[in-house]
Specification:
Layout (H helix, E strand, L loop, with lengths): L3 H8 L5 H14 L3 H7 L5 H12 L6 H4 L4 H4 L4 H7 L1 E6 L4 E6 L5 H11 L2 E6 L2 H12 L79 H11 L3 H13 L2 E10 L2 E8 L4 H5 L3 E3 L5 H8 L3 E3 L6 H9 L7 E6 L7 E8 L5 H18 L6
Parallel strand pairs: 2-3
Antiparallel strand pairs: 1-2, 4-5, 4-9, 5-6, 7-8, 8-9
Helix pairs in contact: 1-2, 2-3, 10-11, 10-15
């Protein structure tokens, strides 16, 4: 049975369907990880595969240096058998009970559920490399049980087809994590998501409230959208309309639920992995940050992502880096901001009047459909 990681590398064009199937056959025949079979083919490195998973799933990446510092007391919240069977290791647990889990295959949802059920923690997936992870598991929990001791080094991998070299984009993922304070999730004493590359915007005529160029004409699709929002009868329809509209102007769109000082991923538009990524994002926004500022003011923001606060750095890392300007749109109701929308990068001119009206119309629709609840 093909794992989700195989689907990701195939859709990204790194390996063909035949190559993925060959690697899966090798993994099944020898009882090794699918990731091991890919690496064993010699055409992608452990580091490149971890960076690819980080970038596509928009999750943190745990480098070998962080694995080498994991405390056995932290790792021991899972059993040795679980760690070796799934090739996972807890690397940090913060005071809000968020557990950062280093994983060779972050698409292994069964492993995530097993760790969550055992620890009663909110599990944050993080990509890592196979060899240093095995060393960390051995140091913290002991050697693999005999029935799980098979490794790729015991297997001669000779794929039936020649694997192509991974494209440069696999190696271009953002730099890895720096230690972060445990007051913001996802985080921990040893690991935090990578920082993003931010490009300052060109000088332009700014909107009175946010810094987007006012040269764009009003979006003709907005009038049709407003009519559909007024006719919508459920939250699922609202989300689809919102994502479809913003997806015309931005390559990536993420809807975050806001409640009691927390932001959680809810829905996304972009490549095929965006929905997976949306389920893993969680931020605390009670302290000053660009997110807290936008929520408090109720006004959209268009500009570079600041890097002054842990929350901002964590979010930038979780979405795989932010180049150029980003858009943050608060969706306002009468007494709250239940949704915050992130979009980046812009692929067409942005009209601030359309964004303002979209924010207001979404808030009105939410109040009409669910006057006492958030999505």
């Amino acid at each position: 049975m093909r794992c989700e990681l195989g689907t990701l590398v195939q859709r990204a064009g790194i390996f063909s369907k035949a190559q993925v199937e060959e690697a899966q056959t090798i993994a099944d025949a020898h009882g090794i990880l699918f990731a091991e079979a890919l690496v064993g083919g010699g055409q992608i490195t452990e580091e490149a595969l971890a960076r690819f998973a980080q970038r596509k799933l928009m999750i943190p990446r745990v480098p070998p240096a962080v694995l080498a510092r994991v405390e056995p007391s932290t790792a021991s919240c899972v059993t040795r058998e679980t760690a070796w069977q799934h090739h996972v290791l807890p690397v940090a647990i913060d005071r809000r009970n968020n557990l950062t889990l280093a994983m060779v295959d972050p698409t292994d949802i069964r492993a995530v559920k097993e760790v969550a059920e055992r620890t009663h923690c909110y599990v944050i997936r993080a990509a890592t490399q196979l060899t240093p992870l095995r060393a960390a598991i051995t140091r913290c929990l002991g050697v693999a049980p005999p029935q799980l001791a098979q490794t790729a080094s015991d297997v001669v991998v000779r794929p039936a087809t020649t694997f192509r070299r991974a494209p440069a984009t696999v190696h271009d993922a953002p730099s890895t994590v720096a230690p972060a304070r445990a007051t913001v999730a996802p985080t921990g004493p040893s690991v935090a998501p990578p920082q993003a590359t931010v490009v300052k915007p060109r000088a332009s005529v700014g909107h009175p409230r946010w810094g987007v160029t006012d040269g764009a004409a009003p979006d003709p699709a907005l009038a049709a959208l407003l009519l559909r929002l007024r006719a919508a009868s459920d939250q699922g329809t609202l989300m689809k309309l919102l994502l479809d509209f913003l997806g015309r102007g931005f390559a990536r769109v993420l809807v975050l639920l806001h409640s009691r000082g927390e932001l959680r991923g809810h829905a996304a538009r972009g490549d095929d992995t965006m929905k997976i990524a949306a389920t893993g994002i969680r931020l605390i926004v009670r302290r000053p940050s660009i997110f807290a500022s936008v929520i408090k003011s109720g006004h959209p923001y268009f500009g570079p992502m600041p890097q002054n606060d842990d929350t901002e750095r964590i979010f930038a890392g979780a979405v795989g880096g932010i180049s150029g300007n980003m858009l943050l749109v608060p969706v306002r109701t009468a007494d709250a901001v239940p949704l915050l929308i992130f979009a980046n990068p812009a692929i067409s001119p942005v009209d601030p009047r359309s964004i303002d009206r979209l924010s207001e119309a979404m808030g009105e629709a939410l109040e009409r459909i669910s006057p006492h609840t958030t999505p």
